[in-house]
Fold each of these.
Amino acid sequence: MEIIPGIDLMRGECVCPVHRPFAEQVRFPHDCAEVARMWADQGARRLYLADLDGARMGEPQNLEAVRRIIDAARIPVCLGGGIRSLDTAKRVLDLGVDRVVVGTTAALDDALAEEIFGEIAERAILSVASLNGYV
């Protein structure tokens, strides 16, 4: 079994991963690159980064923080949040992200899923969230 620590990002900072509205996320007093390095030092073999701004706005918004995390952690990084096109997925992979996490948008859009998973399947993960039995 592999446990993958996650880091939630908003406005380039780590925020507390609690289920609250976006405006109420609690900021951590630590640099996101330091948090990533701490997980790597503790033995993590991979990190999951959630770009909460990207999820809300439809395009990754925290790529500078992602780049700092990749440089600091030196372990594979997966990124989700705002990956809603093949072009965006490729741009994020070119940044150094190991795998992109494509969310509910792709699960509900057959053409998008076919495009992304048809071209970069080995570097894409499908994440499907549900609430009360609905995707």
Amino acid sequence: LYKRARAGEIKGFTGIDDPYEPPLNPEVECRTDQEELQESVAKVLSKLEELGYLSKALEVQSV
């Protein structure tokens, strides 16, 4: 998609000809520069569980 957007085939593409606008009040914020990957993943899974998209968040294990 980025290749097509750079070629002008797709207009209004975020990061190409449309600026990225960070959300004002994100539901989940992962500070990957300040926390371990497992913590970020756990935050996302927990939010998905809270919203009903997952029945139970899996335990995140080190890789």
Amino acid sequence: MTLPDGRKLGYAQYGSPTGKPILYQHGFPGSRIEAAQHHDLGKQLGLRVIAIDRPGHGWSSPHPGSTLLDWPKDVERLTEHLGLEAYSVLAVSGGGASALACAYALPPAKLKAVSLVCAMGPPDIGMQGADIAHRLGWPYGIRFAPYWAGRMFWRTMAIGRLDLSEEERLEMLLKESRTAPEKDRDIFDDVDLMRLVVRSNSQAFAQGYEGVWDDGKKSSKPFGFEVKDLRDDLEVQLWYGKKDVFVPPLHGVQIAARLGGRARLRMEDESHAGIQIHWRKEILEALRDAM
């Protein structure tokens, strides 16, 4: 769709076209393609999953000079464009800041629930429990040394090797996955899912690197609002993995604490990938039931 200022906002729809709408906030890096993993479950559960490219990702135009709180304005215009009267928000990983901004700013009469899955909270929570790469990369690397953070990403991770073809990156990703924990082998041995990961990240960088790093910077500095100020009647569902070393479970604990116990926190014996994939049916069912 075209926004009032002429920018394009890219989105894709999965699941049931007539189902309950879920506004999907992709990870970092990520794109609308990421939510394709929910297509079959969405049809089964009667959910319409609407995944939106953030500025500078996929089909969405860059939005230079924007802040985190500009994002819910774009999201609201999309909901009006689609004629949605009620909806929920689902975010994974690096989409946490965008989802919290939506929770804070979208119309209370229409936003029914928010679900955060291994999602990043405000940067002052810190990264205790994360591995060294994520402790250094977030928030300090992406905010203050994006060149070096990007260099590490491009050189060491399969999804960051944009100098390779998608098939070469897929092959590299499948080789990397051989070191995955036994409990997660079903995830990383799923060639179709890994191909989806590669395609989604190709779309994240379809317009270059600037949009992705700008997105990271917005999430790694003060949000412009406090989590505790989310409205009292909004259902917030939190799903975190005890073994997650990308987004440590501390983020779920702290978000719940800042909401004064109003959030429903689930802490499972899972990794970053495991909580997203092994629990996706339960996550979608809980969000559906809250609408």
